[in-house]
Structure prediction request, 232 residues.
Amino acid sequence: MTELVTYELNDGIATITLNNGKANALGHYVFEGLNAALDRAEQDKAIVILTGQPGMFSGGYDLKEMQKGPKEAMALVKIGSTLTRRLSAFPLPVIGACSGHAIAKGAFVLLSVDYRIGVEGGFKLGLNEVAIGMTMHHAGIEIARHRMPAPYFYRSVVNAEIFNPEGAVAAGFLDELVAPEQLMERAVAVAAQMKQLNLNAHKQTKLKVKADYLALLDRCIEQDAAHFDLMG
Prediction:
């Protein structure tokens, strides 16, 4: 763990918190911290709550790193896609406690965990890649397709529509909303409910349900890297 990512274990529930400035940007050091925290949760056999700062879950990739050049940008995208793939197949339940805005990669994280709780308020959630001049990568398209209802998938991926929290529930980014002050209480309650599951059955069922999707995602991650190689 680093100061950018904190880990707290309490009664079999691991709370992983992103803490990287105003946008909670996702860069190399943050991904290192997230992977280290997930490693620890696996060792602790803990159900995971993944959250951010009040008002900001994550604004997406660290633009300072993305703007270093195409090679650096694609390297960061591959690391990010690999992280969301890990979340999708994580052997223990993962609850997203979305503390506010979730844009671009922040929204992809929500599309990759088992259950998502958002907060009411003037927050924005969605995939803005097309709006800022980025052609959506193959992995991103399939992550969205896997979790979003078809009409919202097109509106989000192709039209870069951004949703308020209520719209984000309909679009598939969130499962429920609570008042901001109730977020962590509700996340812990959901984690406690999940502790009643047979966690091995949960893991095996998740992998069975997602087998084709995970294989497709693996191919997409490599396809994105190969496409960059051809461009570079």
